[in-house]
Specification:
The complex is a heterodimer of chains A (about 270) and B (about 450). Chain A has about 270 residues and is mostly helical. Chain A has 14 helices and no strands. Chain A has a single domain, classed as MetI-like fold. In chain A, helix 4 runs antiparallel to helix 11 and helix 11 packs antiparallel against helix 14. The longest helix of chain A is centred in the last third of the chain and has 35 residues. With about 450 residues, chain B is of the alpha/beta class. Chain B has 2 domains: about 190 residues, Periplasmic binding protein-like II (D-Maltodextrin-Binding Protein, domain 2), CATH 3.40.190.10; about 200 residues, Periplasmic binding protein-like II (D-Maltodextrin-Binding Protein, domain 2, 3-Layer(aba) Sandwich). Chain B is built from 18 helices and 13 strands. In chain B, the strands form 3 sheets. In chain B, strands 1, 2, 3, 4, 7 and 13 form a 6-stranded mixed sheet that branches. In chain B, strands 10-9-11-8-12 form a 5-stranded mixed sheet. Chain B has a two-stranded antiparallel sheet with strand order 5-6. In chain B, helix 8 crosses helix 9, helix 9 packs across helix 18 and helix 17 runs antiparallel to helix 18. Classes of the chains: A mainly alpha (about 270), B alpha/beta (about 450). At the A-B interface, helix 2, helix 4, helix 6 and helix 13 of A face helix 1, strand 3, helix 3 and helix 10 of B.
């Protein structure tokens, strides 16, 4: 009986894995097809011959160095900014009692529930008044605040044992020291998970980048990769577009492989608690 | 001690990078920030007029590349001007960003907008005859400028333009004993489609879709002698037989398996239709002339021919694609520079190369006389069909809420082909009522 359950469970896992892997397989397979093969029906699973030239075309058309560098700058600085802004905020919400703390935390939660489409015009007008449209500042500074990051890390900090903090306080450790030396190392899996979500979100962000930039000078990869598709009155070269998407996704995939262990920890740890 | 030093130095490093980048981005952004104003040129030796243009294409787009290259060439030939093209995410992207920019009062100098959007943006568009020569304006093919005039003032210059045409798989038509020239009217198309269809081989006689802005439906309505809105744009006029005839015809064809309908699938309808046609599974397809170039470039497994869009009561069809406007809020120097750039984009050299590479129309009369186009006609006579058809071009709906209207119309049209038992009269009547409501509520 036990064996049967194990077999069943393994089969379920394999089925789930296939469901998750298939879109990636399809993207890579399409990226190596000719145009005709890419629109064929019924679709061919694999290309007849591998069209690596699709990658060359996508690379050249998308100007990967220029947009890729912008993507790296914007993503890395947003992550760094979130560490400076969201970690102290989450620490305060989790561990401090201050006037209107409940109200401010409720505001964070409300922001978490508001879709971007509701707020984008006022934000655009505000940033336009600051002169931040089409600048790195505009793409980074507003995003150093993240309601998701604050909420997630507040929960993490709340789970840390009080005795540890009391001991530190007895040793007359400063707040900064407690946060950096005690809280951060314990909450490491959470922080890495939040940072990875931020990295993925920022790396793939199309909406805000399109709204807050007008020229190519500070734009990031998703805008350029989207440009590989037609605007609606011509022919969509799915093969080239998919090659661009593979190139766009590759760095995130590598990052995920490195951070995978921490993410699992964060969720398993949170689950047990 | 060690870890602290390490930590401190890494914090300092991150701080330095952030500070450096923000200091640095001041300079790298200066160009973008200056766009829309008169900026200073290299080393401040010469004042440059910076003209920023919002395009439907990004530089990575296969057609956009030619516009970006043109701006580069133009800038090299005109040292006092710098045209900075930037993509804004397609037709809707430009429209949405323009709305936000108008609120923030930070508009570009040039905007490339979908032909019918002039009804919305003409109050902020400049009179182009002030900034372009009369010869240049008169040189545009007349059929392409029918939606460019507002109260007799020329406000939108043609850029990438197209029109629906009927694509034919001549081999399939001949095999069915039909003339390869294709049908002339919608009723003939019905007969052709029935004869050419081979349901046992999953071959359809005809394949098409309404398009995301109901473009093909709008075109058919004109061919039946109908109108979308009244001349002054105050009343909906399609809630009648002229509005639903094509819907009924397509429903019948779908029911009889003579027409392939891409609705009911989550995929891009436009791609599904092209896919059927290119695979030799549809004898005829109604699609934009914009697809002709790319389709002819692909190796053809069959004889690909084209014909006029079928007529209902008469030959009349829509045009589409984008025009360019100059925003009136720009400075006089910028507007003059923009006008000069429009003339450059209407030069024979650019028009011919853009046409050959993209498949969009050559937009000027003089370009049609060039050797290059004549030679192309000889090699691919298919290109001439769309241009000859332009004499029947119809003006687009003069209604600033057209975008909101077609979004609801296309829902009913889609429903008509998903459930072919829906009564086309009722559907179109309902779409007309909803459209009228949108117009009345957003005057």
């Amino acid at each position: 009986m036990k064996l049967a359950i194990r077999i069943l469970r393994s089969m379920l896992m394999i089925a789930l894995m296939l469901i998750f892997i298939f879109p990636f397989f399809w993207m890579i397979s399409t990226s190596l097809k000719t145009y005709i093969e890419s629109i064929q029906f019924p679709p061919a699973m694999l290309p007849k011959s591998l069209q690596f030239s699709n990658y060359v075309e996508a690379w050249v058309r998308v100007k990967f160095f220029h947009f890729g560098l912008n993507s790296i700058i914007v993503t890395v600085l947003t992550m760094a900014g979130q560490l400076f802004v969201c970690v102290p905020a989450a620490y305060a919400f989790a561990r401090k009692k201050f006037a209107l703390s409940g109200f401010f935390f409720a505001l964070v939660l409300v922001d978490l529930m508001l879709p971007a489409q509701v707020t984008f015009v006022p934000i655009y007008v505000l940033l336009s008044d600051f002169g931040w449209i089409d600048t790195y500042q505009g793409l980074i500074i507003p995003f150093t605040y993240s309601s998701f990051a604050i909420f997630f890390m507040t929960q993490a900090f709340k789970q840390i044992n009080n005795e540890l903090l009391d001991a530190a306080k007895l040793d007359k450790a400063t707040e900064l020291k407690i946060m950096i030396r005690i809280m951060l190392p314990i909450a490491k899996p959470y922080i890495i998970t939040v940072m990875l979500f931020t990295a993925i979100g920022k790396w793939n962000d199309y909406f805000w980048t399109l709204i807050l930039t007008n020229s190519e000078s500070v734009r990031t990869l998703p805008i350029a990769v989207k440009g590989l598709l037609d605007v609606g009155d011509g022919v969509n070269q799915w093969n080239i577009s998919m090659a661009g998407n593979v190139l766009l996704m590759a760095p995130i995939l590598v990052l995920y492989l490195f951070a995978n262990r921490f993410i699992k920890n964060a969720f398993v740890y949170g689950g047990i608690k | 001690m060690r870890p602290t030093v390490k930590k401190m130095s890494s914090i300092a490093l991150v701080g330095t990078i952030i500070a450096g980048l923000f200091a640095g981005c001041g300079t790298s952004d200066s160009k973008a920030n200056n766009a829309g104003q008169v900026g200073s040129g290299d080393g401040g030796k010469q004042e440059k007029v910076v003209v920023d243009m919002w395009s439907i294409w990004d530089s990575s787009n296969s057609n956009g590349k030619y516009l970006f290259d043109a701006a580069k060439q133009f800038n090299e030939a005109n040292p006092g001007i710098e045209v900075v093209v930037s993509g804004q995410g397609g037709y809707d992207g430009v429209a949405e960003k323009l709305e936000a920019a108008l609120v923030a009062k930070k508009t570009p100098v040039i905007a490339q907008i979908e032909e019918s959007f002039l009804t919305r943006y003409h109050p902020v568009a400049a009179d182009l005859s002030q900034y372009m020569s009369k010869e240049a304006i008169d040189n545009y093919i007349e059929g392409l400028t029918r939606s460019s005039y507002v109260d007799g003032i020329f406000k939108a210059a043609p850029m990438n333009r197209s029109t629906p045409i009927l694509y034919l798989n001549a081999d399939l038509l001949k095999a069915a004993g039909l003339p390869a020239e294709g049908p002339k009217t919608w009723d003939e198309l019905y007969e052709f489609a029935k004869k050419a269809a081979q349901p046992n081989k999953e071959i359809y006689g005809f394949a098409s879709h309404w398009d995301s802005d109901a473009w093909f439906w709008e075109s058919a309505v004109y061919s039946y002698g109908g109108e979308i809105v009244s001349e002054d744009g105050s009343k909906v006029e399609f809630g009648n037989e002229k509005g639903w005839k094509i819907v009924e015809l397509w429903q019948n064809m779908v029911k009889e398996k003579a027409m392939f309908s891409p609705y009911g699938s989550q995929d891009s309808q436009s791609d599904l239709v092209k896919q059927k046609f290119m695979e030799g599974k549809a004898a005829m397809m109604l699609d934009s002339t914009g697809s002709l170039g790319p389709l002819l470039k692909e190796s053809q497994p069959f004889d690909l021919q084209v014909a006029f869009q079928p007529a209902g009561e008469k030959n009349s069809m829509v045009t589409g694609g984008a025009n360019m406007i100059i925003l009136d809020s720009a400075t006089e120097e910028q507007k003059k520079a923009a006008g000069k750039f429009f003339e450059f984009l209407a030069s024979d050299d650019f028009v011919v190369s853009f046409f050959k590479n993209s498949g969009y129309f050559p937009i000027t009369k003089s370009s049609l006389e060039t050797e290059a186009i004549q030679a192309l006609y000889k090699e691919f006579p298919q290109y001439k069909v769309g241009i000859d058809q332009l004499q029947y071009a119809h003006k687009r709906p003069w209604q600033k809420n057209w975008r909101a209207m077609y979004t609801t119309i296309v829902e009913d049209l889609r429903l008509a082909l998903i459930d072919t038992n829906q009564d086309p009269k009722q559907l179109i009547q309902k779409a007309a009522e909803k459209s009228q409501q949108i117009m009345d509520e957003n005057k």
